[in-house]
Write a structure and sequence with these properties.
This protein has 600 residues and is an alpha+beta fold. It contains 23 helices and 24 strands.
Protein backbone atom coordinates (compact mmCIF):
# COMPACT_ATOMS: atom_id res chain seq x y z
CA UNK A 1 0.00 0.00 0.00
CA UNK A 2 2.92 2.36 0.58
CA UNK A 3 3.52 2.68 -3.18
CA UNK A 4 -0.07 3.78 -3.91
CA UNK A 5 -1.40 7.30 -3.87
CA UNK A 6 -4.14 7.68 -1.23
CA UNK A 7 -6.12 9.96 -3.53
CA UNK A 8 -7.13 9.56 -7.20
CA UNK A 9 -4.75 10.60 -9.92
CA UNK A 10 -5.56 13.59 -12.04
CA UNK A 11 -6.89 11.31 -14.77
CA UNK A 12 -9.49 9.94 -12.34
CA UNK A 13 -10.50 13.32 -10.94
CA UNK A 14 -13.74 13.50 -12.90
CA UNK A 15 -14.72 10.01 -11.88
CA UNK A 16 -13.78 10.76 -8.25
CA UNK A 17 -15.89 13.93 -8.24
CA UNK A 18 -18.92 12.08 -9.57
CA UNK A 19 -18.53 9.38 -6.94
CA UNK A 20 -18.48 12.03 -4.22
CA UNK A 21 -21.62 13.66 -5.66
CA UNK A 22 -23.42 10.32 -5.81
CA UNK A 23 -22.52 9.56 -2.17
CA UNK A 24 -23.77 13.01 -1.05
CA UNK A 25 -20.63 13.34 1.12
CA UNK A 26 -18.30 16.33 1.54
CA UNK A 27 -14.57 15.45 1.49
CA UNK A 28 -12.23 17.95 3.13
CA UNK A 29 -8.45 17.56 3.38
CA UNK A 30 -7.24 18.57 6.81
CA UNK A 31 -3.95 20.36 6.96
CA UNK A 32 -3.00 19.44 10.48
CA UNK A 33 -0.25 21.99 10.90
CA UNK A 34 -2.35 24.98 9.85
CA UNK A 35 -5.68 23.55 10.96
CA UNK A 36 -7.27 24.49 7.61
CA UNK A 37 -9.83 22.36 5.81
CA UNK A 38 -9.73 22.30 2.00
CA UNK A 39 -12.64 21.05 -0.09
CA UNK A 40 -11.86 18.12 -2.41
CA UNK A 41 -13.97 17.39 -5.48
CA UNK A 42 -17.62 18.41 -5.91
CA UNK A 43 -19.65 19.53 -2.89
CA UNK A 44 -23.25 18.36 -2.59
CA UNK A 45 -26.07 20.89 -2.83
CA UNK A 46 -26.74 20.91 0.90
CA UNK A 47 -23.16 22.15 1.51
CA UNK A 48 -24.12 25.46 -0.08
CA UNK A 49 -27.02 25.83 2.40
CA UNK A 50 -24.68 25.84 5.42
CA UNK A 51 -23.71 29.37 6.50
CA UNK A 52 -20.63 27.82 8.23
CA UNK A 53 -19.43 26.52 4.85
CA UNK A 54 -20.52 29.63 2.91
CA UNK A 55 -19.59 27.78 -0.30
CA UNK A 56 -15.87 28.42 0.20
CA UNK A 57 -13.22 25.93 -0.84
CA UNK A 58 -11.50 26.55 2.54
CA UNK A 59 -14.28 26.92 5.16
CA UNK A 60 -13.57 28.93 8.28
CA UNK A 61 -13.63 26.68 11.36
CA UNK A 62 -14.49 29.64 13.56
CA UNK A 63 -17.92 29.81 11.94
CA UNK A 64 -18.72 26.19 12.83
CA UNK A 65 -20.14 25.03 16.12
CA UNK A 66 -17.44 24.19 18.74
CA UNK A 67 -18.24 20.52 18.25
CA UNK A 68 -16.22 20.23 14.99
CA UNK A 69 -12.94 21.82 16.23
CA UNK A 70 -13.12 19.71 19.39
CA UNK A 71 -13.63 16.58 17.27
CA UNK A 72 -10.58 17.42 15.14
CA UNK A 73 -8.50 17.97 18.25
CA UNK A 74 -9.67 14.62 19.60
CA UNK A 75 -8.78 12.89 16.31
CA UNK A 76 -5.29 14.36 16.41
CA UNK A 77 -4.77 13.00 19.91
CA UNK A 78 -5.95 9.54 18.91
CA UNK A 79 -3.66 9.41 15.87
CA UNK A 80 -0.62 9.86 18.09
CA UNK A 81 -1.17 6.30 19.35
CA UNK A 82 -3.14 4.82 16.44
CA UNK A 83 -2.08 6.59 13.22
CA UNK A 84 -4.35 4.57 10.89
CA UNK A 85 -7.57 4.65 12.95
CA UNK A 86 -10.82 6.04 11.47
CA UNK A 87 -12.71 8.14 13.99
CA UNK A 88 -16.47 8.83 13.87
CA UNK A 89 -17.77 12.00 15.46
CA UNK A 90 -21.39 11.14 16.17
CA UNK A 91 -24.16 13.50 15.07
CA UNK A 92 -24.36 17.26 15.68
CA UNK A 93 -26.40 20.10 14.25
CA UNK A 94 -25.53 23.26 12.36
CA UNK A 95 -27.95 26.09 11.44
CA UNK A 96 -28.98 26.34 7.78
CA UNK A 97 -30.03 29.34 5.70
CA UNK A 98 -33.75 28.80 6.37
CA UNK A 99 -33.33 29.31 10.14
CA UNK A 100 -33.66 25.58 10.58
CA UNK A 101 -30.99 23.06 11.50
CA UNK A 102 -29.09 20.40 9.63
CA UNK A 103 -27.86 17.22 11.33
CA UNK A 104 -24.33 16.14 10.33
CA UNK A 105 -21.88 13.35 11.10
CA UNK A 106 -18.11 13.39 10.42
CA UNK A 107 -15.39 10.79 9.97
CA UNK A 108 -11.67 11.57 10.36
CA UNK A 109 -9.64 9.30 8.05
CA UNK A 110 -5.84 9.02 8.05
CA UNK A 111 -4.27 7.99 4.71
CA UNK A 112 -0.53 8.09 5.29
CA UNK A 113 0.48 11.70 5.57
CA UNK A 114 -2.83 12.96 4.33
CA UNK A 115 -5.73 13.52 6.68
CA UNK A 116 -9.28 13.61 5.39
CA UNK A 117 -12.51 14.77 7.00
CA UNK A 118 -15.68 13.20 5.51
CA UNK A 119 -18.89 15.03 6.46
CA UNK A 120 -22.29 13.40 5.80
CA UNK A 121 -25.72 14.94 6.18
CA UNK A 122 -28.13 12.79 8.14
CA UNK A 123 -31.54 12.97 6.48
CA UNK A 124 -35.16 13.11 7.67
CA UNK A 125 -35.23 9.36 8.38
CA UNK A 126 -32.53 9.86 10.98
CA UNK A 127 -34.40 12.82 12.49
CA UNK A 128 -37.64 10.88 12.69
CA UNK A 129 -35.93 7.86 14.18
CA UNK A 130 -34.08 10.00 16.70
CA UNK A 131 -37.33 11.74 17.62
CA UNK A 132 -39.08 8.39 18.05
CA UNK A 133 -36.21 7.02 20.11
CA UNK A 134 -36.15 10.18 22.23
CA UNK A 135 -39.91 10.00 22.88
CA UNK A 136 -39.63 6.30 23.64
CA UNK A 137 -36.77 6.96 26.04
CA UNK A 138 -38.76 9.68 27.85
CA UNK A 139 -41.81 7.42 28.02
CA UNK A 140 -39.81 4.53 29.42
CA UNK A 141 -38.23 6.79 32.03
CA UNK A 142 -41.68 7.93 33.11
CA UNK A 143 -42.96 4.38 33.15
CA UNK A 144 -40.13 3.19 35.37
CA UNK A 145 -41.71 5.13 38.23
CA UNK A 146 -44.95 3.18 37.93
CA UNK A 147 -43.23 -0.15 37.26
CA UNK A 148 -42.22 -0.34 40.92
CA UNK A 149 -45.91 -0.49 41.90
CA UNK A 150 -47.11 -2.52 38.93
CA UNK A 151 -44.52 -5.26 38.44
CA UNK A 152 -47.04 -7.42 36.63
CA UNK A 153 -47.08 -5.00 33.66
CA UNK A 154 -43.30 -4.86 33.29
CA UNK A 155 -43.18 -7.18 30.27
CA UNK A 156 -45.77 -5.07 28.38
CA UNK A 157 -43.64 -1.92 28.50
CA UNK A 158 -40.93 -3.03 26.07
CA UNK A 159 -41.11 -0.01 23.83
CA UNK A 160 -43.21 2.94 22.83
CA UNK A 161 -44.21 1.54 19.46
CA UNK A 162 -45.34 -1.81 20.88
CA UNK A 163 -47.25 -0.02 23.64
CA UNK A 164 -48.98 2.17 21.06
CA UNK A 165 -50.07 -0.85 19.02
CA UNK A 166 -51.35 -2.62 22.14
CA UNK A 167 -53.29 0.52 23.12
CA UNK A 168 -54.94 0.51 19.72
CA UNK A 169 -55.81 -3.17 19.98
CA UNK A 170 -57.17 -2.72 23.51
CA UNK A 171 -59.35 0.23 22.44
CA UNK A 172 -60.81 -1.71 19.54
CA UNK A 173 -61.39 -4.72 21.77
CA UNK A 174 -63.15 -2.45 24.26
CA UNK A 175 -65.49 -1.19 21.53
CA UNK A 176 -66.28 -4.82 20.70
CA UNK A 177 -66.76 -5.80 24.34
CA UNK A 178 -69.15 -2.91 25.07
CA UNK A 179 -71.30 -3.88 22.09
CA UNK A 180 -71.09 -0.39 20.57
CA UNK A 181 -71.82 0.22 16.91
CA UNK A 182 -68.65 2.05 15.93
CA UNK A 183 -66.16 2.39 13.09
CA UNK A 184 -62.72 3.98 12.67
CA UNK A 185 -61.93 6.13 9.61
CA UNK A 186 -58.49 7.06 8.32
CA UNK A 187 -57.56 10.48 6.95
CA UNK A 188 -59.16 9.62 3.58
CA UNK A 189 -62.48 8.65 5.18
CA UNK A 190 -61.88 4.97 4.52
CA UNK A 191 -62.93 2.41 7.13
CA UNK A 192 -60.11 0.65 8.99
CA UNK A 193 -62.14 -1.02 11.75
CA UNK A 194 -65.81 -1.92 12.29
CA UNK A 195 -67.36 -3.53 15.38
CA UNK A 196 -69.58 -6.58 15.15
CA UNK A 197 -72.56 -4.54 16.35
CA UNK A 198 -72.11 -2.20 13.37
CA UNK A 199 -72.22 -5.12 10.96
CA UNK A 200 -75.47 -6.25 12.57
CA UNK A 201 -76.98 -2.76 12.40
CA UNK A 202 -76.00 -2.24 8.75
CA UNK A 203 -76.74 -5.82 7.71
CA UNK A 204 -73.32 -6.12 6.06
CA UNK A 205 -70.46 -8.62 6.24
CA UNK A 206 -66.92 -7.56 7.31
CA UNK A 207 -65.53 -7.80 3.77
CA UNK A 208 -68.22 -5.35 2.63
CA UNK A 209 -67.05 -2.59 4.99
CA UNK A 210 -63.28 -2.81 5.56
CA UNK A 211 -61.27 -0.51 3.31
CA UNK A 212 -64.33 1.18 1.81
CA UNK A 213 -65.26 4.87 2.03
CA UNK A 214 -67.86 5.71 4.69
CA UNK A 215 -70.31 6.99 2.05
CA UNK A 216 -70.34 3.51 0.47
CA UNK A 217 -71.29 1.91 3.80
CA UNK A 218 -73.53 4.51 5.49
CA UNK A 219 -76.35 4.82 2.97
CA UNK A 220 -77.69 8.11 4.35
CA UNK A 221 -79.74 10.44 2.20
CA UNK A 222 -77.84 12.51 -0.33
CA UNK A 223 -78.76 15.80 1.35
CA UNK A 224 -77.31 14.61 4.71
CA UNK A 225 -73.87 13.63 3.40
CA UNK A 226 -72.40 17.19 3.23
CA UNK A 227 -73.31 17.67 6.93
CA UNK A 228 -71.46 14.49 7.95
CA UNK A 229 -68.43 15.39 5.81
CA UNK A 230 -68.33 18.88 7.33
CA UNK A 231 -68.39 17.47 10.87
CA UNK A 232 -65.67 14.94 10.00
CA UNK A 233 -63.39 17.70 8.71
CA UNK A 234 -63.97 20.40 11.31
CA UNK A 235 -65.21 19.14 14.66
CA UNK A 236 -63.00 17.29 17.18
CA UNK A 237 -66.02 15.90 19.03
CA UNK A 238 -69.65 16.41 18.08
CA UNK A 239 -72.83 14.69 17.01
CA UNK A 240 -75.16 15.13 14.06
CA UNK A 241 -77.88 16.60 16.27
CA UNK A 242 -80.72 14.98 14.37
CA UNK A 243 -81.58 11.42 13.34
CA UNK A 244 -80.35 10.43 9.89
CA UNK A 245 -82.13 7.86 7.76
CA UNK A 246 -80.24 4.81 6.50
CA UNK A 247 -81.98 3.97 3.25
CA UNK A 248 -82.44 0.41 2.12
CA UNK A 249 -84.87 -2.48 2.39
CA UNK A 250 -85.69 -1.60 6.00
CA UNK A 251 -84.97 2.08 6.69
CA UNK A 252 -83.32 2.78 10.04
CA UNK A 253 -82.76 6.05 11.85
CA UNK A 254 -79.36 6.68 13.42
CA UNK A 255 -77.52 9.43 15.23
CA UNK A 256 -73.75 9.79 14.78
CA UNK A 257 -71.20 10.78 17.43
CA UNK A 258 -67.88 11.84 15.88
CA UNK A 259 -64.68 11.74 17.95
CA UNK A 260 -61.10 12.62 17.00
CA UNK A 261 -58.48 9.90 17.56
CA UNK A 262 -56.12 11.62 20.02
CA UNK A 263 -53.16 9.55 18.81
CA UNK A 264 -53.84 10.29 15.16
CA UNK A 265 -55.64 13.66 14.78
CA UNK A 266 -56.53 12.94 11.14
CA UNK A 267 -58.46 9.78 12.04
CA UNK A 268 -62.07 9.74 13.27
CA UNK A 269 -64.09 7.38 15.43
CA UNK A 270 -67.80 7.19 14.55
CA UNK A 271 -70.19 5.87 17.18
CA UNK A 272 -73.57 4.94 15.66
CA UNK A 273 -76.64 5.13 17.89
CA UNK A 274 -79.78 3.37 16.66
CA UNK A 275 -82.70 5.78 17.05
CA UNK A 276 -85.25 3.85 14.95
CA UNK A 277 -87.67 3.09 17.80
CA UNK A 278 -87.39 6.62 19.19
CA UNK A 279 -88.02 8.10 15.73
CA UNK A 280 -91.07 5.89 15.25
CA UNK A 281 -92.41 7.01 18.63
CA UNK A 282 -91.83 10.68 17.84
CA UNK A 283 -93.46 10.27 14.45
CA UNK A 284 -96.50 8.67 16.06
CA UNK A 285 -96.75 11.54 18.54
CA UNK A 286 -96.33 14.12 15.77
CA UNK A 287 -99.10 12.54 13.72
CA UNK A 288 -101.45 13.16 16.61
CA UNK A 289 -100.63 16.86 16.62
CA UNK A 290 -100.25 17.59 12.88
CA UNK A 291 -102.02 17.00 9.59
CA UNK A 292 -100.11 17.47 6.33
CA UNK A 293 -98.31 20.82 6.90
CA UNK A 294 -100.82 21.94 9.55
CA UNK A 295 -99.66 21.93 13.17
CA UNK A 296 -101.81 21.99 16.29
CA UNK A 297 -103.75 19.74 18.61
CA UNK A 298 -106.24 22.10 20.15
CA UNK A 299 -109.90 21.07 19.92
CA UNK A 300 -110.41 23.71 17.22
CA UNK A 301 -107.57 22.32 15.08
CA UNK A 302 -108.66 18.71 15.58
CA UNK A 303 -112.10 19.71 14.29
CA UNK A 304 -110.44 21.36 11.29
CA UNK A 305 -108.43 18.19 10.55
CA UNK A 306 -111.58 16.10 10.55
CA UNK A 307 -113.45 18.64 8.45
CA UNK A 308 -110.60 18.66 5.90
CA UNK A 309 -110.78 14.86 5.68
CA UNK A 310 -114.55 14.99 5.18
CA UNK A 311 -114.44 17.79 2.60
CA UNK A 312 -111.64 16.08 0.65
CA UNK A 313 -113.87 13.08 -0.05
CA UNK A 314 -116.37 15.12 -2.06
CA UNK A 315 -115.75 17.39 -5.05
CA UNK A 316 -117.70 20.49 -4.00
CA UNK A 317 -116.46 24.05 -3.75
CA UNK A 318 -115.10 25.07 -0.35
CA UNK A 319 -114.94 28.41 1.41
CA UNK A 320 -112.17 28.83 4.03
CA UNK A 321 -112.78 31.70 6.43
CA UNK A 322 -110.37 33.15 8.92
CA UNK A 323 -108.26 36.15 9.84
CA UNK A 324 -105.18 37.09 7.84
CA UNK A 325 -102.23 34.83 8.63
CA UNK A 326 -104.20 31.88 10.04
CA UNK A 327 -102.99 29.51 7.29
CA UNK A 328 -105.90 29.38 4.86
CA UNK A 329 -103.70 28.34 1.94
CA UNK A 330 -102.29 25.45 4.02
CA UNK A 331 -105.87 24.25 4.58
CA UNK A 332 -106.53 24.46 0.84
CA UNK A 333 -103.39 22.45 0.11
CA UNK A 334 -104.36 19.86 2.73
CA UNK A 335 -107.78 19.46 1.11
CA UNK A 336 -106.14 19.01 -2.29
CA UNK A 337 -103.52 16.54 -0.95
CA UNK A 338 -106.24 14.45 0.73
CA UNK A 339 -108.52 14.38 -2.31
CA UNK A 340 -108.64 12.24 -5.44
CA UNK A 341 -107.15 15.22 -7.33
CA UNK A 342 -103.84 15.11 -5.36
CA UNK A 343 -101.79 14.01 -8.39
CA UNK A 344 -103.07 16.93 -10.47
CA UNK A 345 -102.00 20.61 -10.27
CA UNK A 346 -102.68 22.87 -7.29
CA UNK A 347 -102.73 26.49 -8.44
CA UNK A 348 -103.01 29.41 -6.00
CA UNK A 349 -104.18 32.88 -7.07
CA UNK A 350 -104.44 36.00 -4.91
CA UNK A 351 -107.46 38.00 -6.06
CA UNK A 352 -106.78 41.11 -3.99
CA UNK A 353 -105.76 44.43 -5.55
CA UNK A 354 -106.18 43.42 -9.21
CA UNK A 355 -108.23 45.26 -11.83
CA UNK A 356 -111.10 43.63 -13.72
CA UNK A 357 -109.09 43.11 -16.91
CA UNK A 358 -105.94 41.79 -15.27
CA UNK A 359 -107.81 39.37 -12.99
CA UNK A 360 -110.06 38.19 -15.85
CA UNK A 361 -107.01 37.55 -18.06
CA UNK A 362 -105.19 35.82 -15.20
CA UNK A 363 -108.10 33.50 -14.41
CA UNK A 364 -109.54 32.78 -17.86
CA UNK A 365 -106.70 33.56 -20.27
CA UNK A 366 -106.81 35.66 -23.44
CA UNK A 367 -106.37 35.50 -27.17
CA UNK A 368 -103.62 37.34 -29.01
CA UNK A 369 -104.68 40.96 -29.70
CA UNK A 370 -107.50 40.89 -27.13
CA UNK A 371 -106.03 44.00 -25.50
CA UNK A 372 -102.94 46.16 -25.70
CA UNK A 373 -99.92 44.05 -24.78
CA UNK A 374 -101.60 40.69 -25.57
CA UNK A 375 -98.89 39.58 -28.02
CA UNK A 376 -99.71 35.86 -27.89
CA UNK A 377 -102.39 33.43 -26.80
CA UNK A 378 -102.28 32.79 -23.06
CA UNK A 379 -104.14 30.17 -21.04
CA UNK A 380 -105.58 31.17 -17.68
CA UNK A 381 -105.27 29.61 -14.24
CA UNK A 382 -108.46 27.58 -14.69
CA UNK A 383 -106.93 25.81 -17.67
CA UNK A 384 -103.56 25.46 -15.90
CA UNK A 385 -105.28 23.71 -12.98
CA UNK A 386 -107.11 21.24 -15.24
CA UNK A 387 -108.00 18.13 -13.25
CA UNK A 388 -106.71 19.67 -10.03
CA UNK A 389 -107.55 22.44 -7.59
CA UNK A 390 -107.65 26.22 -8.03
CA UNK A 391 -107.27 28.18 -4.80
CA UNK A 392 -108.77 31.70 -4.97
CA UNK A 393 -107.40 33.62 -2.01
CA UNK A 394 -109.16 36.79 -0.81
CA UNK A 395 -112.19 36.14 -3.00
CA UNK A 396 -114.04 38.84 -1.10
CA UNK A 397 -111.93 41.43 -2.98
CA UNK A 398 -112.93 40.21 -6.46
CA UNK A 399 -114.50 43.01 -8.58
CA UNK A 400 -118.22 42.69 -9.42
CA UNK A 401 -117.67 41.96 -13.14
CA UNK A 402 -115.28 39.09 -12.33
CA UNK A 403 -117.77 37.76 -9.73
CA UNK A 404 -120.28 37.34 -12.52
CA UNK A 405 -117.75 35.47 -14.69
CA UNK A 406 -116.80 33.23 -11.77
CA UNK A 407 -120.42 32.36 -11.10
CA UNK A 408 -120.86 31.25 -14.69
CA UNK A 409 -117.71 29.10 -14.56
CA UNK A 410 -118.89 27.37 -11.39
CA UNK A 411 -122.34 26.74 -12.90
CA UNK A 412 -121.41 25.76 -16.46
CA UNK A 413 -117.92 24.21 -15.84
CA UNK A 414 -116.50 26.14 -18.78
CA UNK A 415 -114.50 29.33 -19.38
CA UNK A 416 -114.16 31.76 -22.26
CA UNK A 417 -110.85 33.45 -22.96
CA UNK A 418 -110.77 37.20 -23.50
CA UNK A 419 -111.06 37.86 -27.21
CA UNK A 420 -112.74 34.52 -27.94
CA UNK A 421 -116.39 33.54 -28.33
CA UNK A 422 -116.12 29.77 -28.01
CA UNK A 423 -116.17 28.44 -24.43
CA UNK A 424 -113.70 25.82 -23.24
CA UNK A 425 -114.72 23.06 -20.79
CA UNK A 426 -112.72 22.86 -17.55
CA UNK A 427 -112.57 20.25 -14.81
CA UNK A 428 -111.34 22.15 -11.76
CA UNK A 429 -112.24 22.14 -8.10
CA UNK A 430 -112.44 25.63 -6.63
CA UNK A 431 -111.38 26.33 -3.05
CA UNK A 432 -111.84 29.95 -2.01
CA UNK A 433 -110.64 31.85 1.06
CA UNK A 434 -111.39 35.21 2.65
CA UNK A 435 -110.87 37.19 5.82
CA UNK A 436 -114.09 39.11 5.13
CA UNK A 437 -117.51 38.36 6.53
CA UNK A 438 -119.09 37.68 3.13
CA UNK A 439 -122.63 37.64 4.54
CA UNK A 440 -122.17 41.26 5.60
CA UNK A 441 -120.62 42.05 2.19
CA UNK A 442 -123.76 40.63 0.57
CA UNK A 443 -125.94 42.92 2.70
CA UNK A 444 -123.78 45.90 1.71
CA UNK A 445 -124.07 44.90 -1.94
CA UNK A 446 -120.31 44.42 -2.54
CA UNK A 447 -120.55 40.65 -3.03
CA UNK A 448 -123.07 38.63 -5.04
CA UNK A 449 -125.32 36.46 -2.91
CA UNK A 450 -125.64 33.76 -5.58
CA UNK A 451 -121.82 33.51 -5.84
CA UNK A 452 -121.57 33.20 -2.05
CA UNK A 453 -124.02 30.32 -2.02
CA UNK A 454 -122.12 28.67 -4.87
CA UNK A 455 -118.67 28.83 -3.21
CA UNK A 456 -119.92 28.13 0.32
CA UNK A 457 -121.17 24.60 -0.33
CA UNK A 458 -118.60 23.41 2.22
CA UNK A 459 -117.12 25.70 4.84
CA UNK A 460 -113.96 25.61 7.00
CA UNK A 461 -113.65 28.19 9.77
CA UNK A 462 -110.12 28.83 11.12
CA UNK A 463 -109.79 30.18 14.65
CA UNK A 464 -107.30 32.97 15.32
CA UNK A 465 -104.12 31.98 17.15
CA UNK A 466 -105.12 33.86 20.30
CA UNK A 467 -108.10 31.48 20.67
CA UNK A 468 -105.96 28.34 20.54
CA UNK A 469 -102.91 29.24 22.58
CA UNK A 470 -102.20 25.60 23.44
CA UNK A 471 -101.04 25.20 19.80
CA UNK A 472 -98.35 27.89 20.15
CA UNK A 473 -95.60 25.59 21.61
CA UNK A 474 -96.07 23.07 18.80
CA UNK A 475 -96.22 25.76 16.13
CA UNK A 476 -93.18 27.58 17.51
CA UNK A 477 -91.09 24.41 17.70
CA UNK A 478 -92.15 23.35 14.20
CA UNK A 479 -91.34 26.79 12.79
CA UNK A 480 -88.01 26.74 14.65
CA UNK A 481 -87.05 23.50 12.90
CA UNK A 482 -88.08 24.80 9.47
CA UNK A 483 -86.22 28.10 9.87
CA UNK A 484 -83.06 26.41 11.20
CA UNK A 485 -83.10 24.04 8.22
CA UNK A 486 -83.35 26.95 5.77
CA UNK A 487 -80.78 29.21 7.51
CA UNK A 488 -78.31 26.52 8.58
CA UNK A 489 -78.24 27.69 12.21
CA UNK A 490 -78.31 25.03 14.95
CA UNK A 491 -80.86 26.31 17.46
CA UNK A 492 -82.38 23.39 19.32
CA UNK A 493 -85.09 24.72 21.60
CA UNK A 494 -87.04 27.60 23.12
CA UNK A 495 -86.32 28.74 26.66
CA UNK A 496 -89.37 28.33 28.94
CA UNK A 497 -89.47 32.11 29.51
CA UNK A 498 -89.45 32.61 25.74
CA UNK A 499 -92.32 30.20 25.34
CA UNK A 500 -94.25 31.97 28.08
CA UNK A 501 -93.84 35.30 26.25
CA UNK A 502 -95.02 33.75 23.00
CA UNK A 503 -98.09 32.35 24.70
CA UNK A 504 -98.95 35.67 26.31
CA UNK A 505 -98.78 37.73 23.09
CA UNK A 506 -102.07 38.60 21.36
CA UNK A 507 -100.82 37.66 17.83
CA UNK A 508 -102.92 40.00 15.67
CA UNK A 509 -101.01 38.61 12.65
CA UNK A 510 -101.69 35.01 13.72
CA UNK A 511 -99.37 32.22 12.51
CA UNK A 512 -97.72 34.46 9.94
CA UNK A 513 -96.69 36.87 12.70
CA UNK A 514 -95.49 33.95 14.87
CA UNK A 515 -93.30 32.69 12.02
CA UNK A 516 -91.82 36.15 11.57
CA UNK A 517 -91.08 36.39 15.30
CA UNK A 518 -89.38 32.96 15.42
CA UNK A 519 -87.33 33.81 12.34
CA UNK A 520 -86.23 37.09 13.97
CA UNK A 521 -85.29 35.17 17.13
CA UNK A 522 -83.25 32.56 15.23
CA UNK A 523 -81.28 35.29 13.47
CA UNK A 524 -80.64 37.06 16.79
CA UNK A 525 -79.86 33.89 18.78
CA UNK A 526 -76.18 33.37 19.68
CA UNK A 527 -76.50 29.94 21.33
CA UNK A 528 -78.54 26.80 20.88
CA UNK A 529 -81.56 28.09 22.83
CA UNK A 530 -83.87 31.00 21.97
CA UNK A 531 -83.96 33.35 24.96
CA UNK A 532 -86.53 36.11 25.63
CA UNK A 533 -84.07 38.80 24.54
CA UNK A 534 -83.86 37.22 21.08
CA UNK A 535 -87.54 37.94 20.35
CA UNK A 536 -88.71 41.09 18.53
CA UNK A 537 -89.07 44.09 20.87
CA UNK A 538 -92.86 44.22 20.60
CA UNK A 539 -93.02 40.64 21.96
CA UNK A 540 -90.06 40.65 24.35
CA UNK A 541 -91.54 43.67 26.13
CA UNK A 542 -95.15 42.54 26.11
CA UNK A 543 -97.17 41.90 29.22
CA UNK A 544 -99.31 38.86 29.80
CA UNK A 545 -102.67 39.21 28.06
CA UNK A 546 -105.37 39.57 30.61
CA UNK A 547 -108.24 37.10 30.38
CA UNK A 548 -110.94 35.87 32.72
CA UNK A 549 -110.16 32.76 34.80
CA UNK A 550 -110.63 29.67 32.66
CA UNK A 551 -110.45 26.10 33.93
CA UNK A 552 -107.93 24.09 31.82
CA UNK A 553 -108.86 20.37 31.75
CA UNK A 554 -106.14 17.78 32.25
CA UNK A 555 -107.22 15.41 29.47
CA UNK A 556 -106.08 15.27 25.87
CA UNK A 557 -103.34 17.88 26.18
CA UNK A 558 -99.58 17.78 26.43
CA UNK A 559 -98.90 18.24 30.14
CA UNK A 560 -96.00 20.64 29.81
CA UNK A 561 -98.08 22.83 27.53
CA UNK A 562 -100.99 22.72 29.99
CA UNK A 563 -98.77 23.87 32.83
CA UNK A 564 -97.28 26.70 30.79
CA UNK A 565 -100.73 27.84 29.64
CA UNK A 566 -101.94 27.82 33.25
CA UNK A 567 -98.94 29.89 34.38
CA UNK A 568 -99.51 32.31 31.52
CA UNK A 569 -103.19 32.75 32.31
CA UNK A 570 -102.38 33.17 36.02
CA UNK A 571 -99.64 35.74 35.25
CA UNK A 572 -97.04 33.51 36.90
CA UNK A 573 -99.00 32.95 40.11
CA UNK A 574 -98.44 29.25 40.85
CA UNK A 575 -101.25 28.92 43.37
CA UNK A 576 -103.73 30.41 40.93
CA UNK A 577 -102.35 28.22 38.13
CA UNK A 578 -102.88 25.10 40.27
CA UNK A 579 -106.49 26.15 40.91
CA UNK A 580 -107.08 26.63 37.20
CA UNK A 581 -105.77 23.13 36.56
CA UNK A 582 -107.91 21.67 39.34
CA UNK A 583 -104.92 20.13 41.16
CA UNK A 584 -103.28 20.75 44.52
CA UNK A 585 -100.45 23.23 44.83
CA UNK A 586 -98.06 20.44 45.96
CA UNK A 587 -98.87 18.37 42.85
CA UNK A 588 -98.42 21.43 40.67
CA UNK A 589 -94.97 22.18 42.17
CA UNK A 590 -93.92 18.53 41.78
CA UNK A 591 -94.89 18.48 38.10
CA UNK A 592 -92.98 21.73 37.49
CA UNK A 593 -89.82 20.07 38.82
CA UNK A 594 -90.37 16.81 36.92
CA UNK A 595 -90.98 18.62 33.63
CA UNK A 596 -88.02 21.02 34.20
CA UNK A 597 -90.16 24.15 34.09
CA UNK A 598 -88.51 27.04 35.90
CA UNK A 599 -90.93 29.97 36.09
CA UNK A 600 -89.61 33.34 37.15
Amino acid sequence: MTGLSPLPSSSDTSFFNHVLAALDIVVLEWEVESGALRLQGYAPRWWQELPAASGAAVPDLNRWSPFLPEFLAYAQEVWKDEPDRTITSGSWTEPDQTNGTMTLEAKAVSLGLRKLLLIERLGSDFENMRSIVQRAREQMLAEEVSVKSYRSTQTSLIGQLEASERTKDDALALLQHLGLAAMVLDERGEITFVTDRTHELLGMAPHETHGRHWEQVLSVRKEDRPLIQHLLESSPQTRTGKPLCLEGGRPRWIELEIHRDLRHPTRRILVINDRTELHALRQALNEQSSFHDLVGKSPAMLRVYQLVRDVAQVDTTVLIEGETGTGKELIARAIHASSARKNKPFIAANCAGLTDSILTSQLFGHRRGAFTGAIQDQQGLFEAAEGGTLFLDEIGDVPAQVQTALLRVLQEKEITRLGEAKPRPVNVRVVAATHHNLSEDVLRGSFRADLLYRIRVARVQLSPLRDRREDIPLLAQSLLGQICASTGKLVERLHPDTLRLLMSHSWPGNVRELKSAVEFAVISCKGNEVCPGDLPPEIAGTSVVSSPPVFIPLSNQDEKTRLLVALSEAKGNRTEAAKRLGISRATFYRRLVELEIHPR
